[in-house]
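Two quick folds needed for the group meeting slides. Do the first one here.
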Amino acid sequence: MRLIGHLPEEAAARTFGDFLFVQGIDNQVDHELSDGWGIWVKDEDTLTRASEWLKEFQQNPSDPRFVSQRQSAASLRGEA
């Protein structure tokens, strides 16, 4: 796993993690006391694209393309 960055709030980190999951990028969101919430990506091949999306998310976390993925992620995980 490789750390691609941090987000200050859990809700934002989980939203972004769900977005990555729906895009087929295996990831993990971990609380890190000093830096907020770390976003970790498993596959090196997806690192660049995930990092680019994180920058876009940080600029506009309310963008519907990110926010709308929560339900899709839940469905894919079998939680819905």
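Then this one, please, same format:
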Amino acid sequence: MISILTTHYNRPDALIFCLKAIEDVKLDLDYEIVVSDDGSTKQNIDIINRLKIDTLVLASKNEGLASNLNKGIKACKGKYILYVQEDFLMMPEFKTVIDEGIELLESHTLDMIRYRSNYHFKNLQPCTEH
């Protein structure tokens, strides 16, 4: 099983789109959805409580992304964690690369995978065609 961890703060509409995109990919693996909220308003928490989430981690006040991420990681039960922010939209093509990514992790070829970033890192090295 993998954990799909999403951090959240007062953006339930973005979270709804994010979770719908994950669901629409129809991943062929066992996964859990963990949402770590960083002190959103009660109104927004009420919306989130109606969503299909396996684990919801709540903070009593906003403590920042790093704290929120750490709380979410502690709640994850999967062997691997796929971290996505609430405005992330998983593309259908992800289904074709997730198995390859897990294989690379299992074989200890890699210990972390960053599937995509809008920031250009100087030292990223491709390890497969994907």
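Slide caption for protein two: The first strand starts at residue 2 and ends at 8.
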